[in-house]
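Hi F.,

I've been meaning to write this up properly since the lab meeting, where we talked about keeping a consistent format for the predictions we share between groups. The idea is simple: the sequence comes first, exactly as it goes in, then the structure tokens exactly as they come out, then a line or two of notes. No screenshots and no reformatting. I'm using this chain as the first example so we have something concrete to point to.
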Amino acid sequence: MLSERLSGVSCGSCVSRRRFLTGCAACAAGAAGLSLPGGRVARAAEGAGGRPKVRLVYTYLPSDRPIWPNIGYDFEKRKKELTGRLVAACPEIDLSPVDIHNAAEAKKMLAEDKDVDGYLVWMLGLWTGAPQVIAAAGKPTVFADDLYGGSGEFLIANAVARRNNQKVACVSSSRVEDVAEAARCFTLLRQGKVVDEFLAACKAARLKGTPAAGDMTCKDDPVKTVGVPECLKKLRDMRLLTVGGGWGMPGSGKSAEEVFGLKVIPVDFKELDAAYGQADKDESARIAESWMKTAEKVIEPKAEDIRNSAAMYLGMQALLKKHGAQGITINCLGGFYGGHLRAYPCLGFVELNDAGLVGGCESDVRSAVTMMVGGALTGRPGFISDPVIDTSKNRIIYAHCVAPTKVFGPAGPANPYHIRSHSEDRKGAAARSLMPLGYMTTTLEIEASRKAILVHQGKTVENVDEDMACRTKLAAEVKGDIDKLLSQWDSWGWHRVTFYGDLLPQVRELAEALKFKVVEEA
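Output, unedited:
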């Protein structure tokens, strides 16, 4: 979670077929020992050859606070492991590790570095601002994501670098060997190669380490959708509560109201907390008991935590009834960390989404509206997530502490789930939903202010069991080009909303009716 968005970045595709072919040509020329025009010769220490000097930069925030991967995470242990494996795999590289926690430290490091050939920025955590500073310096750079640690900042910073044609290569892989392959490309700089050849070699290594798509045959899943006119008619009668402010693209709510006719209603934390305090204790206990009995496992939370979550669910129900609303999105992290909320809404969101309503995380109005539109069209719930990309498996992993357990709609079968603590701070109660595998999914963001729908698809292949980061982790094999999937995160932010079913025809029909463009990000 902890989703952040960068403003002021233009939209549009940053990878063209021509640039891809040019990159391949550069890679082939580099392999043949040729030099291409147009590249900037990298600065090397005096004399040709020798081991390139590479600054190994670990970026993260201290784990004495709620963060990705989680509060109390042992960064020292992880750094020791990664450094050891990288040094052993790259004896031809002179690696010099350093820890950077913010943009100011990154600027100081850049000012002090005099004879460094390039930077390997390994993002172990989120939102330091350092990767963007390093990329802007213009040195040959590799961005690497330590999956479930730095993923959000990696995706956004890498997309910014791509869009601005900065001298940045990237690795988003669960294999340390793939990072080592990119690191070894720094040796080209001591051989007189230009930076463009270095970048092409890194890209070639990444593509070589990305497997071809497997069998994309999916289980039969006919989706019963209403027509677009009926969907739009439903939306005109809907209301969405947004609690506690938060982040999101400016104007998302107003534009959604203008396009879809739904109403976005701001609600203060105090109103929700009052409803929570008035929840019937006996009813809260009954709901909590039902959740604990139906869960496959209850791991960290105590019974009191789950009763508090049930009271929060009843409080949300009371607000929905009071305002005549069908959806609610809450600045849950700001509310809980700031002491405005006494329980997480995660389990209540699961209950709402399973019932055909909308419970949306982090006061993200755009994603909540996307959930409402998809629900009105299909009768199925959306799963809002912070995605992670693993090119070594051609997968995208949708991660959050909330997910539905009735992915085919309220009348469909329920899948198993575990009750866990909330990931970042290890408090309260949240959900790990073990969603059905072998099905096609369609992942969306609908932005009314842009008149655009972002979309990609994938086949569900694994419920990832990993303690780092958010509790639910649904992995899908990407349908299309996973390298292209790395390019839109700066202008669309981290969140995505996933629905079960092949909804691409319906998405195109909806876009045509609204005169929206469809942006296929993979």
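Notes:
DSSP finds 17 helices and 19 strands in the chain.
The first strand starts at residue 53 and ends at 59.

If this format works for you, I'll send the rest the same way.

G.
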